[in-house]
From TrEMBL:
Record keywords: Dioxygenase, Flavoprotein, FMN, Oxidoreductase
Signal peptide range in chain numbering: none
Biological source species: Desulfopila aestuarii DSM 18488
MF terms in GO: dioxygenase activity; nitronate monooxygenase activity
Name of the molecule in the record: NAD(P)H-dependent flavin oxidoreductase YrpB, nitropropane dioxygenase family
SUPFAM superfamilies: Inosine monophosphate dehydrogenase (IMPDH)
InterPro entries per UniProt: Aldolase_TIM, NMO
Keyword Ligase (UniProt): no
Lineage: Bacteria, Pseudomonadati, Thermodesulfobacteriota, Desulfobulbia, Desulfobulbales
Pfam families, per the entry: NMO
């Protein structure tokens, strides 16, 4: 059976898939635009970027596609408000945010007619987000890459959140690697769509260094571990030499912060420098965020082929949607 479309605010994606926004410069217009052109929601990772660079990349993405383009901005960023406003001024279609909870973002979204999508890991925050005006909620579980708001798996935390979110789309995120799992989350758990990120790192269009992609391809299950982050949340990453040393207790603390990117930072290492290093190919000293099931993915594909496979697999087993159905 054909999968339904996904409507968030005034925007409709033909295929119910959001590409996760990965910072720093992992998901840029080079990735987001092809995703949007394939019918999904393409997302630029906006955290820790200069506002001028983010605005320019949003405009570039919008010029490359007629599809839906969003931006992901962590609430933990010191210049969160400036990043939000520059994104709106650049014409972004929607804003996705997590790593903290902002009440004011919903007022900003309403004022500028820009849908706000909140990433949560608990029923309480999901219910609050809907009440405050979220256009959709993403349920992100422990299997996700990057910063984590829970240590519980997706199939455990999704049902109680589905029970309290009634009137807006609810998106499943964390560890989904193929269309069969997509159909499972929509059929059996009532998700209105999915968000995936790690699968798109292993796309031809993702413009990270080859060494970054090879770290994904070479990773075994035991190589994907939890580590600490200056953001104040645990993060899921590949066990690079830096991460292995950090988890073993080696001191990487910084005496002076050059980036001033976080509202609160314990300075036990500079996350901006480590993410930038890995993106450029310095895996030895870099931080490579990755989902728990990254080890299952062993090939680099064009974005269009990823969509084709997800669509073919999902629609071969999809039966009927049980999630939120927008009024006609």
């Amino acid at each position: 059976m054909k999968l339904p479309s996904l409507t968030i605010g005034k925007f409709t994606a033909k295929f119910p898939l959001i590409q996760g926004g990965m910072s720093i410069r992992v998901s840029t217009s080079a990735l987001a635009a092809p995703v949007a052109s394939c019918g999904g929601i393409g997302v630029i990772g906006g955290s820790a970027l200069p506002t001028e660079e983010l605005a320019a990349d949003i405009r570039k993405a919008k010029s490359m596609t007629d599809g839906v383009i969003g931006v992901n901005i962590m609430y933990a960023m010191k210049n969160f408000y400036n990043l939000v406003m520059c994104s709106i001024e650049a014409g972004v279609d929607m804003i996705i945010t997590g790593a903290g909870f902002s009440r004011d973002i919903f007022k900003i979204g309403k004022e500028h007619n820009v849908p706000i999508v909140m990433i949560v890991s608990s029923p309480a925050l999901a219910k609050m987000a809907e009440k405050l005006g979220a256009a959709a909620v993403i349920v992100e579980a422990t299997e996700a890459g990057g910063h984590l708001g829970t240590d519980r798996p997706l199939r455990e935390i999704f049902p109680p959140i589905r029970d309290v979110v009634k009137n807006i789309p609810l998106i499943a995120a964390g560890g989904i690697t193929n269309g069969y799992e997509m159909a499972e989350m929509m059929d059996q758990y009532g998700a209105d769509g999915i968000q995936i990120a790690s699968r798109f790192v292993l796309s031809e269009e993702c413009d990270v260094a080859d060494e970054f992609k090879q770290a994904y391809l070479n990773a075994n299950k035991e190589d994907i571990v939890l580590t600490s982050s200056p953001v104040g949340m645990p993060g899921r990453a590949i066990r690079t030499p830096f991460v292995a040393a950090k988890n073993a207790g080696v001191d990487h603390s910084t005496k002076k912060c050059l980036h001033l990117c976080l509202k609160k930072c314990d300075h036990h290492y500079c996350i901006s420098e480590r993410l930038t290093a890995s993106r450029a190919g310095n895996i030895e000293e870099g931080l490579v965020f990755a989902g728990a099931n990254t080890y299952k993915m062993k090939e680099i594909l064009p974005v269009a082929e990823i969509f084709r496979l997800f669509k073919e697999q999902a629609e071969s087993v999809y039966k009927e949607g049980k999630g939120f159905a927008p009024a006609c």
